[in-house]
Design a protein that fits this description.
Layout lengths: L14 H21 L2 E2 L5 E3 H5 L4 H4 L4 E3 L5 E4 L4 H9 L9 E10 L11 E10 L4 H18 L5 E6 H10 L4 H12 L3 H10 L4 H10 L3 E2 L2 H11 L4 H20 L4 E5 L12 E6 L8 E5 L3 H4 L7 E7 H10 L8 E8 L5 H13 L4 E3 L6 H10 L2 E7 L1 H5 L2 E6 L4 E6 L3 H6 L4
Parallel strand pairs: 1-5, 7-9, 13-14, 13-15
Antiparallel strand pairs: 2-4, 3-4, 5-6, 6-12, 7-10, 8-9, 10-11, 11-12, 15-16, 16-17
Helix pairs in contact: 1-5, 1-13, 5-11, 6-11, 7-8, 8-9, 10-11
The protein binds histidyl-adenosine monophosphate.
Length: about 425
Amino acid sequence: MPAFKTVRGMRDFLPEEANMLKFIENKARRVAELYGYKEVVTPVVESYELLAAKAGEEVRSRMFVFKDLGGRDIALRPEFTASVARLVATTLRTEPKPLRLFSFGTVYRYDEPQKGRYREFWQSNYELMGSNKPEGDAEILMLTDSLMEASGLKKYVFKVGHVGVLRGIFVQEGLEDTVQNVVMQRMDKKEYEVALKMVRDAGVSENCVNILQKLVKIKGSEIFEIVEKMKTVVKGYDKAVSAVENLNAILKLIVESGCKMDVVVDAGFARGLEYYTGMIFEVYVPEFDIALGGGGRYDQLIELFGGEPTPAVGVAHGIDRIMLALQMQKAEIETREKSVMVIPIKEELKGEALKVSRLLREADIPAEVEVMGRKVTAALEDANRRRMSYAIIVGEKELKENAVAIRNLAKREQKIVKIEKLVETIKGQNV
Ligand code: HAM
């Protein structure tokens, strides 16, 4: 047999990484709870047609597509939004709005593997269905800020734009949807020259080309000044003006909420996915030029899937990239498992050590007993290496007083505690 490896683009998570993944997952779940998002679990495999409908060329061409044994065209989900929109268009059709839905799991894209780019990766996904109001968009931005902060990231920036600005101009210029989509794909890749050429070739006015040239250069962190500039530049294109006003309203709400997120407004910003109709955004850290999360407003997808007209806005966070960013920012995150190592000081105390471990487990505290016959120092080193929280050292002298020594492995502090107080001490983290 050959020495097997994981398939290209796929990874194993060893305990330490799996632990970090769980840590962020827990934060994502807590954010869902705090903002009122209920979890839905949808299948990893969906019909190709559903997933491809509005994914955009970039994502569409990178889907894992195959035929099942029944000859159906199916694919591994490259994201959650299409699945959640399907649910809202069908089973959840009559559910009162707003509907706030959360998902967490793996998604698949045939991307070129490199740092931060994998073929199987994890997303936490939040969709707010039924509201077309700027407070909905603000909520999705704030929720993303909450998750980034709760994960322990020190510095991150939101890049915010609005699809309605460019699309508003294109519509007024009579540019067909298909052409608009290709142009937006180019914009997403920052190939502005190519995009402009396409627009010009499609026969738009010279005024339009001028405006687009100016727009793609407008960006900065003085957000309300930038928005004013955008408004001046797009004058005469009514839909684009309303889009800028909508962006202004969203940003104003963020400021009024007191949320101190760093925002850069970028007028030439586009995203690869084709369903967006309004505000779009991505989150970046200085260490990385790829996004840690992205989302935006998509008001037509649910109707396209046969549902009621339902405005919607959402976001997905790239958990693998958040993990990488945390490592690069050397963020101090507590991923120590709340677990205890029980170490008898000598042979004759093994039974006592087992007894203490039973007491802990009965109180719902994970406990392992030293089973390799190692000396206390070696066993302590091992527990520390494995990032356990506490060690309990069972010694003769202390036992006579019905006590044991408990050591906080992170703080390297130790004290003697009566066995009857042990559970209370660990649960209350009084050491
Ligand atoms: P997206 O921007 O395609 O949006 O993906 C969201 C996040 O997934 C990215 O910002 C990135 O962190 C992560 N990601 C994407 N590709 C990879 C990869 N190859 N390896 C690791 N991480 C990756 C969406 O998926 C939309 N469904 C977001 C949304 C929800 N819009 C509205 N609702």
